[in-house]
Design brief:
seven-stranded parallel sheet; 43% helix; 353 residues; two-stranded parallel ribbon; Rossmann fold
């Protein structure tokens, strides 16, 4: 379903462009936001230190937008953990989309200090720089991990549990600071709790790679796709196009009771990891038929992982006019096609033939 609110917002933005800051612009989600904004003729500043992002993502955006639109982009090499970098990047900015963070539950368990420095101190630096710059709107990325040990499904924004990892704790702290900055300083801020975002440009390699690109790569290479636990863990996987919509809607909604709140960003449908494996295997097999017989390899469950995740998206639909444009299956079709059938997947090795 197309969101009429979203379509109207895009027209309004093209008619009256703004200056935006995207933190983490070289990352998976940040680079998609950069591309989306430039195609809408916006002026965009990108801030990134390439700790997890890649210059190839920025280059891919350049190739996808026209030369005229690319001229509207300026890159600030810097770290959200350094306040002066944040303040410099915020000069003249009207809207901030704060995506920069050090993701991954396992990474946070191995190095909680690093996660805190990036995700809590970095978040606070961006909020304070935004306050000093007098921005019109700040939208920041949170995570479904904040629901922690709360067993209730679907996940409703008001009902969270105890965090199960340092990563979850850092994201919850970001939400707390956002609420404080809205109440104390009237900062016009909205948070978005992402549920397992996936799509093109997500890194398939490395210890902390997300499951969907990692499995596409493994199955296409004839390598085992590793499932932590029995595979009955379930997730609400959200395609990147839905996340772009949520960010733009949050940036453009008229001031109302949405400000100072945080919203789930998801599809409202969950699948188990066993089901996900079959879906990916079947799509890979269309390009590499010998992948049809692939079987997963089960290993012990990881510490800090939530057993089940499913979002209630009623609040974001009511307050922001959000409606997912892509189901998980539609998103998987586009994602697998990008990795397997195009030349625009830097670093991706495929081929079992």
């Amino acid at each position: 379903m197309q969101s009429t609110t979203f379509e109207a917002l895009k027209i309004r933005l093209q008619q009256s462009p703004k200056k935006w800051l995207v933190t983490g612009a070289a990352g998976f989600i940040g680079s998609h936001l950069l591309e989306c904004l430039l195609k809408l003729d916006q002026v965009v500043v990108g801030l990134d230190n390439f700790s997890t992002g890649h210059a190839r993502n920025i280059e891919d955006v350049r190739l996808r937008v026209g030369a005229k639109q690319w001229k509207n982009f300026s890159f600030v090499p810097g770290d959200v953990g350094v306040f002066t970098d944040c303040r410099r990047a915020c000069i003249g900015v009207q809207v901030i989309l704060h995506q920069a963070a050090l993701g991954s539950v396992p990474r946070s368990l191995e190095n909680p200090l690093q996660s805190h420095a990036n995700n809590v101190n970095g978040c606070l630096n961006v909020f304070e720089a935004a306050r000093g710059a007098g921005v019109e709107r700040l939208v920041f990325a949170s995570s479904s991990s904040v629901y922690g040990d709360n067993p209730l499904l679907p996940k409703i924004e008001e009902n969270i549990g105890q965090p199960l990892s340092p990563y979850a704790a850092t994201k919850l702290m970001g939400e707390i600071y956002a609420s404080v900055y809205h109440r104390c300083y009237k900062l016009p801020i909205i948070g978005l709790r992402y549920f397992n975002v996936f799509g093109a440009r997500q890194d398939p390699d490395g210890t902390y790679a997300a499951v969907i690109p990692r499995w596409i790569a493994a199955i296409s290479r004839g390598e085992p796709a590793v499932i932590n636990g029995d595979g009955e863990t379930s997730r609400d996987f959200c395609y990147i196009a839905n996340v772009l919509q949520a960010n733009l809607l949050a940036s453009g909604v008229d001031p109302n009771d949405a400000l100072g709140r945080v919203f789930n960003v998801a599809v409202g449908h969950r699948v188990t990891l066993n089901e996900l494996f079959v879906k990916i295997r079947d799509r890979v097999a269309r390009t590499y038929p010998s992948a049809a017989g692939a079987q997963p390899r089960h290993v012990p469950e990881r510490a800090g992982d939530v057993r089940h995740s499913l979002a209630d998206i009623g609040a974001i639909e009511r307050h922001l006019g959000y409606h997912p444009t892509h189901s998980m299956d539609q998103g998987l079709d586009e994602t697998c096609a990008w990795y397997l059938n195009t030349a625009r997947a830097p670093g991706f090795r495929a081929g079992v033939e």
